[in-house]
Write a structure and sequence with these properties.
With 251 residues, the chain is of the alpha/beta class. Helix content is 38%, strand content 16%. It folds into two domains: 9-57 and 169-245, Rossmann fold (3-Layer(aba) Sandwich); 60-165, HAD superfamily/HAD-like (Rossmann fold). It holds the Pfam family Hydrolase_like.
């Protein structure tokens, strides 16, 4: 997560707040808790509460309540993921004969030993679950491999595809939001800079989608894809201008 806001980000949040629009911040980061993300946003002058944040980490307990009665999980991820599982009283194990799920996020200590154990567990019937499919994570001085790269390695070593992804573009984050609110997809606008996660997530959830060309996706990439956003903007100032003309359709 960067320490510098994108152009017009603060103004856009202020604009939406003046319109009394409900704002959720969705991130595929698997290295921070909701509280840590909210604290970082406040540091950047973006007002946010932990309840406004949706991360794959925050959805872990809800995911396992929905899809598994008694999970026994091997974790390939950071401490925030392990802490969330501990809070949910979910059993952690590295024994391939006991593992029911291999949960994969960004793990800076990923090793051959972890790869071998995870692949063995998956071959024995454990479900491979990804926190997010992103192949890389943008950093100040470039990028580092993210969960998607590790998931691909385990898929290759086990010859079995991942069962589910918890974060974007999965519809699971949207279902979680809809279950907690009276929102509906057609009354929501998903704003993001990445086609294969942000925009595809919004489309999967039946939302309006806006691609902003100030991040991962270039104008050329946006023209040569089968993932089609409803609108494409050079920056958030263009989005604000259009929303100011038509705000009633977006909750």
């Amino acid at each position: 997560m960067e320490d510098k806001l994108l152009p017009y980000a603060e103004e856009t949040i202020q604009f939406l707040n003046r319109l009394n629009k409900k704002i959720y911040f969705l991130t595929n980061s698997s290295t921070r808790t909701n509280e840590e993300v909210a604290e970082h946003l406040n540091f950047l002058s973006i007002p946010a509460e932990s309840s406004d944040i949706i991360t794959p980490v925050s959805l872990i307990s809800s995911y396992f309540r929905t899809y598994s009665e008694v999970p026994r999980v091997m974790v390939i991820a950071g401490d925030s993921v392990k802490s969330e599982l501990a809070k949910a009283k979910i059993i952690l194990t590295n024994n391939p004969d006991e593992i029911t799920h291999v949960l994969v996020g960004l793990d800076k200590e990923f090793s051959y030993k972890k790869l071998n154990s995870a692949a063995e567990a998956v071959r024995k019937g454990a479900q491979l679950i990804g926190l997010n499919p992103d192949p890389f994570c943008p950093m100040k001085n470039g990028v580092i491999p993210d969960a998607g790269t590790l998931i691909k390695a385990i898929e290759s070593a086990s010859n079995i595809k991942a069962k589910n992804i918890i974060g974007k573009p999965s519809k699971f984050p949207a279902d979680y939001i809809f279950s907690k609110t009276d929102l509906a997809g057609e009354k929501c606008l998903m704003i993001g800079d990445r086609l294969d996660t942000d925009i595809l997530f919004g489309s999967n959830a039946g939302m309006n989608t806006a691609l902003v060309l100030t991040g991962v996706t270039s104008a050329e990439e946006a023209e040569n894809t089968n993932i089609t956003p409803h609108r494409i903007y050079e920056d958030l100032s263009q989005l604000m201008k259009e929303l100011s003309l038509n705000t009633k359709s977006i909750t």
